[in-house]
Amino acid sequence: MIKLFTLLSLALICAGAFAQKVADLPSKSPSSEVENILVEQIATDSMCTSFIIWIRGGVKHHFHTSHTENIYILEGEGEMEFGEEVFQVKAGDYILVPRLKVHSVKATIPMKVLSIQAPMWTTDDRKFVAPIRRPHNE
Predict the structure, then answer these.
(1) Looking at the 3D structure of the chain, how many domains does it have?
(2) Which residues contact 126 (CB under 8 A, 6 or more apart)?
(3) Which site from 38, 102, 126, 132 is most exposed, i.e. has the minimal number of CB atoms within 10 Å?
(4) Please, what sign has the CA dihedral across residues 38, 29, 99, 21?
(5) Per-residue pLDDT tens for 78-132?
(6) What's the CATH number where 79 sits?
């Protein structure tokens, strides 16, 4: 039993030595004025990169060539386009965006989101595209 306790304690200590901690994400404020979008990287390693993104206007239609994006909305509301689907999003919502899926968001109430990109973010991953045209209902 003592060996098991010692082994578990050592594992926890080692895990803690490699952890990157960002405290209290809900109260985190932007480092500068947000005109439309402000992106701040909060953690990274070879497996993923995490960002806090403040959105006043919107994020244009784009997709990721090699990343899956996990989005958790901390504050605000908006309208998300996800391929050909359009839906409302709000604080507390989680969205999984698979690699190559075209998506965008338009804030109706300024938003703050946690975005986790896996694997590690590279600058050439995001590709902007034209909006998907939809017929108007009359």
Answers:
(1) 1
(2) 62, 63, 64
(3) 132
(4) positive
(5) 999 998 899 999 999 999 999 999 999 999 999 999 999 999 988 889 999 998 7
(6) 2.60.120.10
